[in-house]
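Q: Convert this sequence to structure tokens.
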Amino acid sequence: MPRKARISLPGEIHHVMSRGLPELLLFRDNNDKKFLLTKIGEVITQSDCECYGFALMGTHYHLILRPKTVSLSLIMQRINTSYATYYNYKYRRSGHVFGERFKSTVAQEYWYIRELIRYVNLNPVRGKICSDLDELVRYPWASHATVMGHSKHSWVSTHNILSRFGDDITAARECYLDWMSSGRGVKKNDWYAKKPAFMPVSEEEEKLFTDTRVKGSADFIRKALEYARKSKEILLKDITNRPELPDLLKSICLKKQIPPEMIMKRGRKCAVSQVRAEFCRKAIHLYGYTAVKTAEFLMINASSALRLSRKATV
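A:
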């Protein structure tokens, strides 16, 4: 059975989970975790995206994101490609680091944001990494410590998180801590199993609530599904009409009056660098080619292709 297309809504809350290969320990030491958090912060800051929570585990990690003008897929591609490149270089290996595409659930903010914040931040407790909330507040690899003011990550929207629990920051932290305490015994999948505050009134609505890619009211789910359908139609149309990579490179080189073979050679000439950047930007952002496929064509690594694509858009 083909897997369902991922659903992403600009401006809405998304719970994201990315897992390493089954046989791989995704974080072998704290430096690995530091690198990933630094990269997450960089990408979020550059991508007009808000972060409402994170938790790094041994084999995977969780994020709560609100992407705005940059797609969730591109944000996660930038993060995971950079980490995979770092990981393979450090541990002298090659190949995939993440076992599958990241998973995401778009959630209606009003009904689920507090539940989702608690779910993500309690992952280290449920995973037996931290024994209780006292230990969790000293655990630097989950956003609970940031919300409580024990660690600083400027890219975490701490103010927006605490505003869900009160207007005064001190009172909001107390309310947030009470909320966290009431959830210490929750099971791993409780957030996903949680029934909506609004019950379905028809068989059609009952079917809507079984879609694990979206959490919200029937109207919210319909909106998400319709957006996903239209986005898929646009993407298929763009892919059908897009040029092949060799033709794309030739057209850019023709305008710049640079032979295409010069672009394939290593060098730091300004004109060549500009063409490479424009090629990567158009291939990835305009025509929907993956960073990996674009990089393979230029015979560079995927993180370099992403860096060039961003350079061209500045």
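Confidence is low (pLDDT under 50) at residues 233-237.
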